[in-house]
Amino acid sequence: MKYEAVIGLEVHTELHTATKIFCNCKTSFGADPNTNVCPVCLGLPGVLPVLNKKVLEFAVRAGLALNCEISRFSKFDRKNYYYPDLPKNFQTSQFDLPICEHGYLDVEVDGEVSRIRITRAHMEEDAGKLVHHGSSITTADYSLVDYNRTGTPLLEIVSEPDMRSAKQAVAYMEKMRAILQYCGISDCRMEEGSLRCDANVSVRPVGQKELGTKTEIKNINSFKGVERAIEYEALRQAEILEAGGTIKQETRTWDENEGVTKSMRSKEEANDYRYFPEPDLVPFTVSDEYIENIRKTLPELPDARKARYMESYGLSAYDAAYVTSDKDRADFFEAMVKAGADAKEACNWLMGELAGKLSENGLEIKDSKVTPEAMAELLKLITKGTISGKIAKKIFPEMWETGKSAETIVKEQGLVQISDTGALEAMVDEAIAENPKAVADFKSGNKKAMGAMIGQIMKKSHGKANPRMVSGILIKKLQAL
To answer: Belongs to which family (predicted)?
Structure first.
């Protein structure tokens, strides 16, 4: 029997505010354990929370960018459960009256666009962080608790079960991350936990309308992990059903090292959390004027920026999607073009040499050792014919290591491209004389035979010969033979 996966995602993103959702503690990452805490976020007796108004603003901003309806009347609730990282034994969240509802995102996979509905997006406080001493949560000898993250403002964005593949789920998350970054409400660093994902996965026979029993995979912290975890879990469930078994509704964890999901506990239902209105926080209203003022501040979002790049710069859909999928990358690209770089060449270098150096050094593009302006200067030297693309690829690593400009390196090392027609013709004549077989092959109709001669000329000139001029002169002379 053939099965299909049914996938819904719960994306949690930490909002990029200076202080926590209900107190004045800092939200900075990397502080010593249990130093960014106070009686409010630790839930000590006698304290009262106060909503950080920036959290509400960011939630509305995200909701508008995700095509959601913004609730005019909303409130907070207590979600009751017991876990070591939750000092109050309840989480202040939203239940029946979330701030955002009924949104959607359009995602593209293999050329096919699908609309993924967003059920809701609600504000809540984050829990603390458990540090497990062992290879995984299921094998740890013991765990320590850091409460610094407790009370950090979260936006939980819940999708409908509209995804049918792991690739589609990853595309949805990547699109979500880009929008949140563009809106400036979260840095979305998965490695730091500011963007996390719980995946609800079930399978059913193809053609069946009823949903199967789902499992929830908790706290996946990389796009590759999301893809691998969903693929594994869907296959695991299909094999169980094919063998005549039944799926147990439970919460599972993803073990990155072993590449498997593992059972953690039985899955809770909403009534298990015993939700009730938070008595220490009054319900609040959001006016039409407030919403419209925030709407006016929304930036150009990824889809609009992609369309502009295709229209204004002539980028292909693939190239424009790559550049705009990360705000910092798009900003870097625009700075290169503004400094005079050709848009297509700028895109090629972003995808090639620069991406390679960033990956090699574990850096984000905003931390690049070569500025957009310096990159543009390098590309302009190619356009002017001062250097070849091959020489540029030799110069770039030195720019990265030394901080010197491309022009300085060219002058210091005498790397100016040979574009003198007389000198190039002499090189071409020599190559023709030394490669009679290639000449004969060319005259027989094998145009690729030119490649060996051009390669020889470039090698003898140490890459300095202008390859376009060499090709033109060579063709002219070969055709005249």
So the answer is: Belongs to the GatB/GatE family. GatB subfamily.
